[in-house]
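Section 5: illustrative case.
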């Protein structure tokens, strides 16, 4: 039985009920789960009796460990040349239609061995962890064949064990059309639904299924087929929706009870209302918005009016968001999307947990929840969104293990 306790901390519990900051508090855990938290004046009521190594936070801020609920961090190669092309005037869509974009990363990832892929991805995950991340979602989608998709997901699982971090994997076979299926998108979707996805599911490699519903991705009809296949296998879905145009993707995601609809700059109010009814989380990705120099803002007003939970993620990927700092995304969510610092913090804690279907165990500090905790060189939660480019993490505790 392992026990631990933090004392003299300013604790931001990040609960849905909006429990206030505990000014001078303690938080204890046992066997990886939080047992108690409260003001120091109530520490005598802590059911944990030790022995344990107590961490004196000296007034520092304590939050749930952060959750990055949308990444493509397992891939090989980079697309710096495309960045230059875009600066010379080419658009993200033009580059994709000319055979670059996602399929360029597919070529690099297909030719990387499992060891090479692990080595290329490890520093990206390590950088996220240095920002206080204790759970990360990792998608496939740069293989587009069974062997490489499976390899990406296996690497994701290996990284979880190696770096002491919670990893949720997502199968994104319907990310782009691989060259061997050129001109035959429906045949590729048949292949994904009938062969790749079932094999991935049998191996237990995916916790969820995603697709890219877009002009340069797949149609709503093709997306439906992927979602139906996921449903038949009992896997939850999420969607890259309405990033560059409104194809009704967010509404389609809601129709399938998706965990989340992601990007959604072009989503209509009707789609937002459907998300609210379905409990589908809006995952906003300010890094991609910034890096592609988008001008269409996600529908913050509608999301707030309809009370759709909003999460924030890095979208860490080589094409639209080569970013490994979740704290930078908090800052951008505020500066670019006009979110409040407290909305942004909820977006990388409790709402990010909801977007991964793990809200019952992750993303808030409360008795019974997993002891995933971040201790910061900061006093107030707003400081986490306010500063950018620095390092504020003091310590990360993952399932009760101080790292
Ligand atoms: O989330 N939109 C599709 N997928 C990624 C980009 C992938 C890439 O360009 O490599 C995204 O933005
Ligand atoms: Fe993405």
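Designed sequence:
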């Amino acid at each position: 039985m392992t026990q631990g306790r933090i004392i003299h901390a300013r604790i931001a519990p990040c609960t849905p009920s909006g429990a206030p900051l505990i000014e001078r508090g303690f938080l204890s855990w046992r066997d990886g789960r939080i047992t108690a938290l409260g003001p120091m004046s109530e520490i005598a009521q802590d059911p944990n009796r030790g022995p344990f190594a107590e961490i004196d936070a000296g007034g520092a801020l304590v939050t749930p460990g952060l959750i990055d609920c949308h990444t493509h961090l397992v891939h090989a190669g980079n697309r710096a040349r495309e960045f230059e092309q875009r600066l010379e005037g080419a658009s993200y869509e033009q580059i994709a239609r000319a055979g670059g974009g996602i399929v360029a990363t597919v070529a690099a990832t297909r030719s990387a061995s499992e060891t090479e892929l692990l080595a290329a991805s490890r520093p990206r995950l390590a950088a996220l962890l240095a920002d206080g991340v204790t759970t990360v979602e990792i998608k496939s989608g740069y293989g587009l064949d069974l062997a490489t998709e499976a390899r990406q997901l296996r690497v994701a699982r290996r990284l979880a064990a190696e770096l002491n971090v919670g990893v949720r994997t997502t199968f994104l076979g319907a990310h782009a059309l691989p060259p061997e299926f050129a001109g035959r998108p429906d045949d590729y979707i048949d292949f994904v639904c009938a062969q790749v996805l079932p094999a991935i599911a049998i191996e237990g490699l995916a916790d969820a299924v995603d697709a890219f519903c877009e002009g340069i991705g797949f149609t709503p009809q093709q997306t439906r087929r992927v979602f139906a296949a996921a449903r038949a296998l009992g896997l939850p879905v999420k969607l890259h929706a309405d990033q560059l145009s409104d194809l009704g993707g967010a509404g389609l995601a809601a129709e399938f009870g998706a965990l989340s609809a992601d990007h959604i700059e072009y989503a209509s109010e009707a789609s937002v209302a459907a998300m609210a009814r379905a409990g589908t989380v809006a995952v906003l990705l300010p890094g991609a918005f910034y890096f592609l120099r988008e001008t269409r803002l996600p529908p913050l007003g509608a999301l707030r009016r309809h009370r759709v939970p909003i999460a924030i993620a890095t979208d860490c990927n080589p094409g639209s968001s080569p970013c490994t700092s979740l704290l930078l995304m908090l800052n951008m969510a505020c500066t670019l999307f006009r979110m409040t610092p407290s909305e942004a913090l909820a977006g990388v804690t409790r709402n990010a947990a909801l977007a991964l279907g793990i809200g019952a165990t992750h993303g808030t500090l409360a008795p019974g929840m997993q002891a995933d905790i971040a201790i910061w060189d900061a006093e107030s939660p707003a400081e986490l969104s306010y500063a950018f480019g620095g390092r504020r993490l003091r310590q990360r505790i993952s399932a009760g293990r101080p790292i």
